[in-house]
Amino acid sequence: MSKLNRWQRFFAIVLIGFLSLPAMPVTNASNRPTTMAPDGMVVTPHYLASEAALQVLEKGGNAVEAAIAASSTISVVYPHMNSIGGDNFWLIYNAKTGELKALNASGRSGSLATIDFYKSQGYHNIPARGYLAANTVPGAVSGWWDAYEYSKSAMGGNQQWSGLLNSAINYTENGFPVTPSQAYWTKVNVESHDNEFRNLQRFEGFRSVFLKDDGTPYKTGELFKQKDLSNTLKIIAQKGADGFYKGEIAQKIVADVQANGGVLTLEDFANHKANWVTPLSVDYRGYKAYNLPPNTQGMTSLSILNILNNVDLKSMGEGTADYYHVIVEATKQAFADRDKWLTDPEFVKIPTANLLSVEHGAELAKRINMQQAASNVKPLDSQGDTVWIGIVDKEGNAVSLIQSIYHEFGSGIVVKGTGVTLQNRGSFFSLDPTNVNHLEPHKRTFHTLNPAMLFKDNKPYLVYGTMGGEGQPQTQAAIVTRIVDFNFSVQDAIEAPRWLLGRTWGASSNDLKIEGRVPAEVISQLKDRGQLVKVVEDYTDVMGHAGAILVDPNSGVKYGGADPRGDGAAVGF
């Protein structure tokens, strides 16, 4: 096999795995096959990012190093979903020490970002787009750098930092084919001239980068290059995180922001740091589910599982009205806790231990009425454009990583001379001083991002996550319950019909979107129980782009699944 090229080896491995006994039965032969490999597995929502990570693993790099390659690459080839101007969060399992580490690389609000400042400008809410939406320091690069330093010091990392950015730099210089997703979301955001949220062509930086010379969007398959971003990545490759936060890149970003009335300063960049934090966990059916603590909604994803631990899902049956109803109702209860408490824990003492206690989960489960949907729930915002990356290497190291700029194209601001698209995550802050997530300087906002892992016998069993804002906790619940409770294969769990409780941008209705593959009888039963069901198209990306890797605890074989709703791939070796 040593004479075969990478892809020949890959398909040979898949064939060998197919002929062997799988860890789980394939429940739907019409879906993509689950990818199987003995040594390493990568799942990302873009195939070029998956390939970049696989190359690092094949060269002897570990899961963290491969994740940096994937994360930097996808910042280039999926620019509408994420950017080095956004944030990321990490779960890292160190197979040598048996330790699970969590890294919060989200940015804090600027020192000039106050409620009084926005209200003096006539705002009752922080604008969703523009320079005033870009009010938090981008944290993604600090996440790469701190994870790399940890990998080198504690995990035997052996790859050069600069080499991990080679793939990303290559695609900025030589271009990559525009995906259908990028083409679609670019078109959506420039076709409406009277919509302040969608009219991104009004920003010069956006026009110069994401539109062609004639002002039209790039089409699927056309090569897309980013010269300014290439120069920025080269500086980061040479100087590390300091090259982004303490040099000419920061100076260009701050100069542009302040020239347009923004609130970020050079000190905000220079003082930024990511933080290692303690993961949260709950038990679920004998497994232990892990996620990030606040300011992420990881506690919400865990709360749903904590509630469902009191429910006999197996007796209900997967795909029944009972199954959908009980998870939706558990979600409502978990969201109520989240909306009351979730913000930066450095500003508010959040009772996470109580919120995730066995007793609290049982109490919330008792509130669920199986015959009637709860109606006293605040409108939710399902918007959120994000990428999730999962990697398990030959040694058993594992990474669950999520990275985002919040809405597609973030703030819409691309800083001239840098190619950096700034996120609009800070637009989630409230200007109501009584709101738990109200704006203050140097504060991290409520974050929808939350990468997850499920452990069995103190080791990673399932590495999983998804994009999708409000949908992240719901899709995580779908994947876990389908695999743990109903023995689905990884790919089938991802492809099975999904749902989303929430509203899309600009809508006031708080409905329950369900893919059209759900039987009409089930839809009718849900409506009878008071669920405000809206049937949407099959495999819609409104449901987010999920991914997962399952590690067989006996053989060590990795089973990877990528979402057909996105442009991703699960690849292994």
Structure in words:
- It is a single chain.
- This protein is α+β, with helices and mostly antiparallel strands and 573 residues long.
- The protein has two domains: 38-275 and 388-428, no CATH class; 280-384 and 453-562, Orthogonal Bundle (Serum Albumin, Chain A, Domain 1).
- Helix content is 36%, strand content 18%.
- The protein is built from 21 helices and 21 strands.
- The strands form five sheets. It has a seven-stranded antiparallel sheet. It has a seven-stranded antiparallel sheet with strand order 7-4-3-11-10-2-21.
- β14 (452-456) and β15 form a beta hairpin.
- α14 packs across α16 (321-341) and α16 (321-341) crosses α21.
- It starts with 5 loop residues before the first helix and ends with a strand.
Any chance you could write out the topology, listing elements then pairs?
Elements: H1 6-19, E1 35-37, E2 41-44, H2 47-58, H3 63-77, E3 87-94, E4 99-105, H4 115-120, H5 140-154, H6 161-164, H7 166-174, E5 176-177, H8 180-188, H9 204-210, E6 223-224, H10 227-239, H11 242-245, H12 248-259, H13 266-270, E7 275-277, E8 280-284, E9 287-291, H14 298-308, H15 313-316, H16 321-341, H17 352-355, H18 358-366, E10 385-392, E11 398-406, E12 414-415, E13 420-421, E14 452-456, E15 459-466, H19 471-485, H20 490-495, E16 499-502, E17 511-515, H21 520-528, E18 533-536, E19 546-551, E20 558-562, E21 569-572
Parallel strand pairs: 17-18
Antiparallel strand pairs: 1-20, 2-10, 2-21, 3-4, 3-11, 4-7, 5-6, 8-9, 9-14, 10-11, 12-13, 14-15, 15-19, 16-17, 19-20
